Amino acid sequence: MIRSRRQFLHSLGVGAAAGVAVRSPLDAVAASVGEPARAGQPAGPIFLDSNENAYGPSPKVADAIRSATSTVNRYAFRKDAEVTERIAASHGVKPGQVLLGCGSTELIRAAACAFLGSSRQLIQAWPTYEAPQDYARSLGAEVVSVPLDQRHAHDLHAMLDRASAATGLIYICNPNNPTATITPRREIESFIGKLPSTSKVLIDEAYHHYAATSGMYASFIDLPLGDERVIVTRTFSKVYGLAGLRLGYAVASAATIESMRKFMTQNSLNAIVAQVVGTAIDDADSIQKFVKRNADDRQEFFNQAMARMLMPIDSHANFVMTNTQHHANEVIEHFRKHNVLIGRHFPPMDMYIRVSLGTPEEMRTFWRTWDMLPWSKKFTHH
Questions:
Q1: Most exposed: 63, 113, 234, 284, by fewest CB within 10 Å?
Q2: What is the pLDDT of residues 235-258, one digit of tens each?
């Protein structure tokens, strides 16, 4: 990724090329892998607000969904064991270590119910995904929010300083939402090793596929730590393009899974997703294409941003957070008035907006809308 504005503008051969959104060379590629056409569709808003896969599920999974509609008159609980075994096999763990949920958010709720309460404490970074703190507060637990560090990653040293025997659950979203940043694997391992023995650690890997495995990042499912305090959650809502079908899962020790199971909604498995999950897991080629396309779309976002003299936070997910030098609510409202929905305000990052990556057509609309901001031109000059 080009990180210097000067390097980027030199590579373009221009000083202030931001007035018009640059046509992406990936447009033809997007069309070839199934970008949904907006032509002929109702003129609804462009959704760049919820970190979804804008391209939808793969063609194989879409075909499986169509075939599965004949099952919707039946409850899907009959397939619970089959789906659990399929997910467990894909990770090389035992079925007793896997718990299915209505998205990974239900699993976060179950973990909060199992390990928090009026005398217990949740520790989290801030800002991060809000569901854990909302559930913790509903249970009467204390919520300790520790500001992100200068890298916009988890400040694990400060989080450790706040841990005590009362700490029932620690939430680590990695990559983090809303900043799309990574907290290094080695730092998390060291952090977990120093925690009280009674503290569970929930590592939310919703955006795992977008974060390339490296010396900085490795999944705690794919490369287990071997610590029974660790719970890892994943979802089919992001790279698989199945947000509306609501399937997530947790991987943990069998004892931890059973503690959480008591708080799960009964019969929550969706009949259609129960039929297609195996197809989604097996369609590894499409997942690789989604990841590659996201990387290309993300680079294009950075290209456009840097041409406008913006400097987004480096992203390891399918969304980007960038400083607008104006209050986020002002920018969010501007986009809303132009039928483009972007992420909500994330205090205390009051000047930042979070933008989910859309299709090339949607992102051209985003940048045209950005360029209509009354103060946007000041970003195009040295």
A1: 284
A2: 999 999 999 999 999 999 999 999
Measured at the alpha carbon of residue 230, what is the angle toward residues 225 and 236, in degrees to the nearest 5?
100
Query: Which run of H or of E encompasses 224?
Result: none
Q: Are residues 130 and 276 in the same domain?
A: yes
Residue 365 in contact with residue 340, Cβ under 8 Å?
A: yes
Q: Is 250 found in the same domain as 179? A: yes
At residue 101, what is the residue type?
G
Residue 147 burial (C-beta neighbours within 10 Å; 0-12, 13-18, 19+): middle
Which residues partner with 233 through β-bridges?
A: 204, 250
List strands edge to edge, sheet with 167-173: 98-101, 248-251, 230-235, 200-204, 167-173, 121-126, 142-147
Which domain does 22 fall in, by range? 5-58+285-380
Average pLDDT over the chain reads: 89
Contact 270, 245 (CB under 8 A): yes
Which residue bears the tokens 């659990």? 84
Cα-based angle 335, 340, 344 (whole degrees, multiple of 5): 70
Q: Which residues pair with 125 in a beta bridge?
A: 146
Would you state the torsion angle of the CA atoms of residues 316, 122, 246, 32, taken in this order, to the nearest 10 degrees? 0
- Could you tell me whether strands 230-235 and 319-323 are parallel, antiparallel, or unpaired per DSSP bridges? unpaired
CATH of the domain at 54: 3.90.1150.10
